[in-house]
Amino acid sequence: MSDATPAGRRTSVLVVGAGYAGLTTALFLAWRGIRVTLVERHPDTSVQPKAFGIVHRSMELLRQIPGLAERIAAANVLDFAAEATITIGRDLRDENQFELLVGGDEVMKELASMTPAAFGALPQSKIESVLRATAEENGAELLFSHRLESFEQDAEQVRARVRDLGSGEEFAVEADYLVAADGWQAPVREQLGIGTHGLGELWRCRTILFNADLDELLAGRKALLTYMQNEHFSGLYSYLENAIEVFGVSGAHLLGVNYYPERGDRDEDFTDERCVELIRVATATPDLEVEITDQSTFVIAHRVADEMRRGRVFLAGDAAHVMPQTGGLGGATALQDGHDLAWRLAAVLHGHAGPALLDGYAAERQEIGESTADRQLARLADRMAPHLQGKYPFPPEVPAQWEHLGYRVASAAVPGAERGPETLLEDPAKATAEPGSRAPHVFVDKDGTRISVLDLTGRGHVLFVGSPGSGWLAAAKEAARTLDVPLPAYSLGGDLTDDTGSMLRRYRLEPGAAVLVRPDGYVAWRADEESADAAAEFGRALATVLARTAAG
């Protein structure tokens, strides 16, 4: 790569793409004081609503940044428990539509008992705009209308060329790491030569935003969306109430029409005239007056990258795992990829962890991404595509709460974590702070304020011990000093009051026990009784968790 560029710049992490994965990576890196530059070829975040909502686990992570969860909650557009239904039918007037409840009071109550976070009832377009604003407020450099042209890497850094699409200027960027969150077409993955597996592209969906008077047809309707199948097309419909105020787009309705490039279908085939015809079929209203306001395309695919890391380059979001939308966890998986990458990269760049900590990203997120993709494919076959039945080994069905809050992790930096398909998911209501499990949500009192234990996590690793006289406290202080890492520690009966016994029970924090929790809320290590040489044992454990060599 030539160094003869008009302007060069240096950053710690270069992020490509401003979807959920890219924006979350940039936001949480900036929040942790890491210099980050994001480039996105589009002039702004998406105006298309795309996916709807942030599930509880993702909100649990976002609420680590003060004020962010409240910012999202203030803009919620519906009562998810009351209105989260899906219907399946021929068209919107089909009297034999099948109704599928995806929310509901019972599920919401169960989730509320497992997490301090609430569901974020917003379209992806609005959520992305909030993430963008918060990232910029925290110091992230976000360059829209900029495109990554090329990159190369060596053992020391990544060198990239970026083009300003407004001025045409091209400049060099040097970074310690590159995060490829560049969507389902994944040009960075393609350049790296990383293969994929799965069923691949199944079809594409042309999303059409439109205005029309459908008040009579939609009277009393509460469904989030309707899947349709008839002799003219298959696809989906969603009502975008208060579209301009809520979604930032003109067009109160969305029709998605599936099409197949291998059959010769093209985006260009969706003229306004044809779109009007399709909308009239979907609404079963032959003379409906329609105004088309916008169109876009997204891919329906089942495709998982064979690797999520190559050297100093990491894949995240759709670049790593494209999945059908059925289940609503594709965006959540992308957002959680970004959060995972951010805390690991920040720990390494601050010198708190060794570079091997980054190996855990691929080891852990690959399994979760693949499992989620497979489960969403199974739901697609069940709801929309029965012809896919038997074409792929679908995993056994589990309760929705398990998928939202019950994924476990295993890597070299989680000593004692069990690894294997049979231990990848667990019932979050019964989890007891084992290595690799998500730390349970319980309420405690700290300084006279009732908080969730998870509110004490986020910035870095945190230690919880069973009594204020625990030798693990002194061991943690010594290990943190030796390894030069921040490590807050809290004790039951000292810093934390557990009047209900919930933390004692769920964390099994008897006197002598200790639990170390990562920034993403996963348990990194635990001890059930105090060691005779607690300082040495905890020093070794912390060094393993941080992929560090213990000093001395």
Give an overview in words.
With 552 residues, this protein is an alpha+beta fold. The protein contains 16 helices and 24 strands. The chain has helices spanning 20-31, 56-62, 68-73, 80-83, 105-114, 124-137, 187-192, 215-218, 243-247, 272-283, 330-349, 359-383, 400-405, 471-483, 502-507, 534-545; strands spanning 8-16, 36-40, 52-54, 85-89, 98-101, 120-123, 141-144, 146-153, 158-164, 170-180, 196-211, 223-229, 234-239, 253-259, 291-305, 309-310, 313-315, 321-322, 443-446, 449-452, 462-465, 489-491, 514-517, 523-527. Helix 1 (20-31) runs parallel beside helix 6 (124-137), helix 1 runs parallel beside helix 11 (330-349) and helix 14 packs across helix 16 (534-545). The radius of gyration is 24 Å and the shape is globular. It starts with 7 loop residues before the first strand and ends in a 7-residue tail after the last helix. The model is unreliable at 1-6 and 242-249 (pLDDT under 50).
Spans of at least 5 consecutive residues whose pLDDT stays below 50 are 1-6, 242-249
The strand count comes to: 24
Computed over alpha carbons, the radius of gyration is 24 Å
Mean pLDDT: 89
What helical percentage do the residues reach? 25-40%
Strand content: 25-35%
Largest sheet: 8 strands, mixed
Termini gap: 43 Å
How many separate helices? 16
Summing up helix and strand content along with how strands pair, one would put the structural category as: alpha+beta
- Gross morphology is globular
